[in-house]
Amino acid sequence: MKQAELLNNLKKVAAHEITPQQAAEKLSEIDFTELNYAKIDTARKKRTGYPEVIYGAGKTPEQISGIATALKKQGQPVLVTRVTPEKATKVQEKVSDLNYNSTAQVMIWEPQPATHIGEIAIVTAGTSDIQVAEEAAVTAELFGNQVTRIYDVGVAGIQRLFAKLNVIRQAKVIIVIAGMEGALVSVVGGLVDQPVIAVPTSIGYGSNLNGMTPLLGMLNSCSAGISVVNIDNGFGAAYNASMINHLASKEAAR
Amino acid sequence: MKQAELLNNLKKVAAHEITPQQAAEKLSEIDFTELNYAKIDTARKKRTGYPEVIYGAGKTPEQISGIATALKKQGQPVLVTRVTPEKATKVQEKVSDLNYNSTAQVMIWEPQPATHIGEIAIVTAGTSDIQVAEEAAVTAELFGNQVTRIYDVGVAGIQRLFAKLNVIRQAKVIIVIAGMEGALVSVVGGLVDQPVIAVPTSIGYGSNLNGMTPLLGMLNSCSAGISVVNIDNGFGAAYNASMINHLASKEAAR
Amino acid sequence: MKQAELLNNLKKVAAHEITPQQAAEKLSEIDFTELNYAKIDTARKKRTGYPEVIYGAGKTPEQISGIATALKKQGQPVLVTRVTPEKATKVQEKVSDLNYNSTAQVMIWEPQPATHIGEIAIVTAGTSDIQVAEEAAVTAELFGNQVTRIYDVGVAGIQRLFAKLNVIRQAKVIIVIAGMEGALVSVVGGLVDQPVIAVPTSIGYGSNLNGMTPLLGMLNSCSAGISVVNIDNGFGAAYNASMINHLASKEAAR
Amino acid sequence: MKQAELLNNLKKVAAHEITPQQAAEKLSEIDFTELNYAKIDTARKKRTGYPEVIYGAGKTPEQISGIATALKKQGQPVLVTRVTPEKATKVQEKVSDLNYNSTAQVMIWEPQPATHIGEIAIVTAGTSDIQVAEEAAVTAELFGNQVTRIYDVGVAGIQRLFAKLNVIRQAKVIIVIAGMEGALVSVVGGLVDQPVIAVPTSIGYGSNLNGMTPLLGMLNSCSAGISVVNIDNGFGAAYNASMINHLASKEAAR
Amino acid sequence: MKQAELLNNLKKVAAHEITPQQAAEKLSEIDFTELNYAKIDTARKKRTGYPEVIYGAGKTPEQISGIATALKKQGQPVLVTRVTPEKATKVQEKVSDLNYNSTAQVMIWEPQPATHIGEIAIVTAGTSDIQVAEEAAVTAELFGNQVTRIYDVGVAGIQRLFAKLNVIRQAKVIIVIAGMEGALVSVVGGLVDQPVIAVPTSIGYGSNLNGMTPLLGMLNSCSAGISVVNIDNGFGAAYNASMINHLASKEAAR
Amino acid sequence: MKQAELLNNLKKVAAHEITPQQAAEKLSEIDFTELNYAKIDTARKKRTGYPEVIYGAGKTPEQISGIATALKKQGQPVLVTRVTPEKATKVQEKVSDLNYNSTAQVMIWEPQPATHIGEIAIVTAGTSDIQVAEEAAVTAELFGNQVTRIYDVGVAGIQRLFAKLNVIRQAKVIIVIAGMEGALVSVVGGLVDQPVIAVPTSIGYGSNLNGMTPLLGMLNSCSAGISVVNIDNGFGAAYNASMINHLASKEAAR
Amino acid sequence: MKQAELLNNLKKVAAHEITPQQAAEKLSEIDFTELNYAKIDTARKKRTGYPEVIYGAGKTPEQISGIATALKKQGQPVLVTRVTPEKATKVQEKVSDLNYNSTAQVMIWEPQPATHIGEIAIVTAGTSDIQVAEEAAVTAELFGNQVTRIYDVGVAGIQRLFAKLNVIRQAKVIIVIAGMEGALVSVVGGLVDQPVIAVPTSIGYGSNLNGMTPLLGMLNSCSAGISVVNIDNGFGAAYNASMINHLASKEAAR
Amino acid sequence: MKQAELLNNLKKVAAHEITPQQAAEKLSEIDFTELNYAKIDTARKKRTGYPEVIYGAGKTPEQISGIATALKKQGQPVLVTRVTPEKATKVQEKVSDLNYNSTAQVMIWEPQPATHIGEIAIVTAGTSDIQVAEEAAVTAELFGNQVTRIYDVGVAGIQRLFAKLNVIRQAKVIIVIAGMEGALVSVVGGLVDQPVIAVPTSIGYGSNLNGMTPLLGMLNSCSAGISVVNIDNGFGAAYNASMINHLASKEAAR
């Protein structure tokens, strides 16, 4: 909660507009919607700039529907990640206008189309990384960013990367997604002057250790300017990239 | 190397200004300085926006001096990280104007004072995280950023964090540095609308596993908008934060 | 076996009321019931204050039925944890009055309703942690404790926690259940003056490592007053909390 | 901060006794003392029942002296853990009445002797676990608990444990400290009806993995009623045990 | 191959009874039977005292049948471990007299009933460890050992163990099988004067890490006289125990 | 891209045969074929001596068919690894002349039969390692190598290895494939004067850790002359072995 | 405590020779000697066949001297393991007749020379494993076993092992000690018909992981008849081997 | 031992030139030199093409001197790896003509200068990898290979690598040495048609995990044609590279 609001409430108390008890309740109670199984953080967009997002993997169709409906009522955009096709069908029986993207495995509802500004480049090492990349792309678009997709430019055929370097360099932020050993991140990081957000994927076998190997590799990159999010976490990368991409325009608007 | 330069060189060949052989050499050879033990990447600043930085831990005083001297000759700022006081003294015998900061354990030489723009907040959970924080702070200042230090506001006494929240929220980017379990990162991430760069430290004992525990914790944060760099890597966090902080002004200058 | 009983038996031998051979058997043999596949520890309630509990995961419906029947014969309450709906149905074919709670995945039979004393607060970070929380809640109620449920108050929306802090502070013991990075435990621990029992859950993906990340995080908490049980071990947390909650009344009864 | 205080401050604002701005500062700023390198959580005792404790391992003698002096000024007891003899000597040059216990490696200053109530049993498996045990014992005594020490009763000679079982059973809470495989915890847990707090130690070699093996073993104990703290964390165990031991008297005082 | 046989063959060469070429072949080729997919080590019984055993997990029914038939032809006993019921049925279609034990998940064919000597005690901590225990028991009986089964005597109810201690002490070798933390091994090891072979099982959840926790615990046991085999390796434990049990009689026969 | 080609293109620019813009495109764009979901590295054979190989595990039948068709159009041999029988059937519906080898789980199309030179020995420890061995064998044959298969000669029956040693020693390169502890690699390495490429397999259970144990064992071999590839990576071993085997003839052709 | 003694004491109670209270004390108290810092298990030899052994690593010279003196008073042999030369000198100032073996790093005092029976073969892979081997050898000799040392016969030069095979086969039990990958264990295990006790050592570097790699390798050995003790645990291996070696004679003496 | 020799010895027995007993001794005893602490594998050069190499790290100066002297007597070249300057001085007091290379930390004695054939390229990512690289270079030269050193061409400044690509491509085998994340290996592997041997180094900090991160990364490389040796194992890489480099000439000489 912003300090300004705190002061404002205190002033209302001083002016006898509200009682101290009311102020205390205001300060702590209003910022979420209570469901039986969840407390929806309806103040999140105001506080962090982005609405609450529903992580679909651990929830029942009923829980997803309930939270989505509550968000829609407040006119907030709805994003549900990690939804299997089966679960999506069940959710749509209850909330029919939640659109399902089967490649990215996400569900989306927008109160109105977002304006897309700036540019985020999403780069993958291989074809197998595309599902994670699409989770990132769809998230970034919902959050109002232009997205450029550059897929399958891993270092085993490094000329593919060089051919696309001009395109990549036009973005404000770059998301690099790679499994196996994740070397693409270091190579891109050494060639650009933008922030790079690295996403390790669980693509590979044996000592890939379900993505731990590229995760560790990316954290130890010999190139600077790279930060890392969790394995297969396309959503998290897009969230970060969107924050950075919007910094400039937000500053301008101040 | 930028595509524009490539084209430019090719045009010179077409115009018979240089021979093909000369162009080939130009294209591949000019962008570094060859020492006996190192190839100094003198083009890095042009390519990535930042000069080559010397990681001091694995190098002899002779190697550090040599590389620093080569960078100075080209008028590039010099930053050497992870330098013990003993090694610093030996380096200064050869390059006397390399200043040593014993808290941050870095050496610095600037051709001219940098202009500090924007603002990066550096937040630590405890007193023991200060060395890593100062490595970040000194790096960020050298790279032309204003820095605000907010130290020892860990969640065991969460009112300390809330008291400083207004200050933290004024920054464009936030670096959060924490050892033990690293929970401060998630709390900050849930309260701000700026990108947060998390730095795990090796502070703690037993099952802290030399920083692997907060590293994993930060990567799994329930708050979005957080990306992570390597354990104790204050330099890397500052490098990322600087890139983001400079994005706005760079855009403006286009 | 209590020293008092040992002395008592030895006195009977001295008084020729029982033979030495009978005493030896008494001392070691009487305290369990031998089945074909199990030795039921029927003395456990006398010795530790709680009856033997059946860990259902590794056992066949036949084994569960047999042990439950033996416990019922002695008038002991029956608690079977980790029972899938399919297995529960098969067990009920043999022991029809074992009630099944499908959220907590436990089966229960009580000789008579327990008296609920004191208060245990069960706090979860997310909606996905509810199954573990219900295993804890049902266990605590069977063992005679009042339970307050506070679900989905994770630190990504920390105002939800503060709104419930007064309720949490009224309990004698607090169980905090969280997956991902488990930061909620440290925040709660820094705000209360009761013992906190932390339960990491396997909720999360990638480098969550099936709960090892929050487990390690909780063990390294910067807040004091926290102890930890195994991943997803709601039963174990409730058992501990019940022991602590009953301490006061037990002392009074001495 | 307690809800009652919040209300109280708000009432003062309503009564025009303080300005809203003053209230806002009060609410967030007063609860710690700002040093150059630390923010001392002077409200912790009021909030959690225990004063802030100084973890000495990562701090300089100057920092320890400064924080200790600040706590003493407020009449709060001072406890510094993990202090080597060399560092203790340097601290005592500045704060001469901080007593040093070389077995437990802690420094202590008490404004007045604590009243010792209830009883905590501290049980170790071996002689090598004594340093951790004394850190626990000294902490527990400072926090106002009676302590009974039962050392070197590991399961390799289990008759030693049985001989001391009556003594152990008289305590309200039991701390069990063990290295190697940590089996003593499970045996004690199966024989008592009190809460057991388990402390793994880094005693052992090879696949003991610096205490990770007994840590994992204790978390997986087949006995119920056991919770675990970090490796070698005698302080943490005592803190928990003290909280539990004081529960009864606190309840009585309500 | 025994040195005596080598000498014998060399003597035959010297006596011109066989050619050098024939000797070379004899020395290296005769000791196995070549199948398309396997080289059956038919000399193993002569060399190590035990026949080749078929590890069924990674093999097709056809491969198992083929190898079993080859061993039967030479009058060697057949033991196939890790056979699921489905696979057993398919194998029996080809080799009908291979008996299947569904608890131990092994198949057996004996040319003639073995004479059972000495005694091996097989002790488990819980009911869930019985499958591994039966693999051990059946193996030990096939190899000519008397077996005593003592199941479900884990340390959570330690009086069960003491009640059976006399029986356990009558064996020549003791196999202790336990999951979770494996503490039973240390307790037994401290009470007996026979070799103890410890078998960790994958029974448990969360930080049990599929048996790695009891494996590490057993290797770090504070009791001496314990050696360890792989997780769930009932066969390996029985093989070792049989070797030890037969030592005495073998010596007598020398 | 070869330096010679770079020079050649530059010369054409100098001769005004092509424009600089055309050269720039040539240099970076021509070396791959762009599909919707992949950038096929059609220059790989020229650059590394081997065509691009399709890792089938993470791809849909449509993607495999598309890439295979593109490679066939250029007259390049096609190799798809890790294809299940179900997926193979679907791929063959689109590309009917892609042959499927069900033991090796690979699909193959050859523009013309390769000439097989030199010799690679493929040695396995057990019958269960054969699938990995066949992936290696089929790959090596496709790449123009003679292959000798020596299966099931693990060290538990070491005379089987000695009997085949002469055959193994005739190869130019040796691939050794083993699961469990992987000891066969060290034994072979100590007996031969050829390079040995070691392939750990995930055969085993418990503390085999899905092949990490033999992987680590092979990397720590006490015999020299051994290098290691990823777990179950028969393809990678064959690729390396083929490179080495072809060195001699390539040198001759220079 | 043996059941026979329990009965005997109970009979004395029945005969009024001792009071019940005296019996209870006898049963639990007499079996150890209480020092300030240790409870010496003086009954261990009677119970397990071997005296208590002092693990020197975690103890002060004073503690070692005190325990050694107490054992000597009872006429028990004294063995102190893991003693550095410096610590040994300090211990000898107090207990001058404790002999120090600097290769094995153990101290020994024998009331009378042991009779050496049977035979234990101690086999090492390399020269660097000799310290662990000597700890085993000295322990075994103190416990009354004949010892044969066969050092530096690792599989990199496997003919060295074969040359010593006849000697190895004459032992009743074989201890195999190896670092790096530990392959020697599997080779020996496949060639002998005696129990093999494997000791991994921390010899090696990089991914040897301080002995975890050979430890895991030995547990996964493809040869049967192998059991494993902790890393560098020469003492533990000798203790086990001695138990097995003495089995035959003990049986004979029954 | 070669099959030919075996046959030859057997023929001599048949011809009564030697007795069977002598043959048996010949077959097993002759191939090493017995010292007190080592069995020197003097036949290794004949068997594997390379002499026994002394791993200096775990050995005393006396042991190194003794083994070196024995090898010199047989006219074999001597290579001792991992020798600190202090140890080297002590060894030279006994064997004065063993030359010490302080960068590579190896000692060398050559009976006569080796002829250097072919070419091995040794490529490092950074300046800090040079010690490992020099261990490889010196080893390769001793074994008769020409060596080209290309140091500090890591992917953070990838133009340095491209500038040296022509030089690298002239070698027959390439050794790539890198710490941090090891990405250089994948980039080189995608650009060359020679076998690449990858050496991870322990250069880096935090989650580099002493070289485990680049080790895992290299094993998971997306480029084919790469095999890996142990962390920091420059010697092992050179040994492999030498074997491959000599293949061609050996084949020619057949």
From TrEMBL, chains A, B, C, D, E, F, G, H:
GO MF term set: hydrolase activity
Domain called PurE: residue spans: 118-250
Superkingdom, natural source: Bacteria
Alphabetical GO biological process terms: 'de novo' IMP biosynthetic process
NCBIfam families per the UniProt record, alphabetical: LarB
Protein name per UniProt: 1-(5-phosphoribosyl)-5-amino-4-imidazole-carboxylate carboxylase
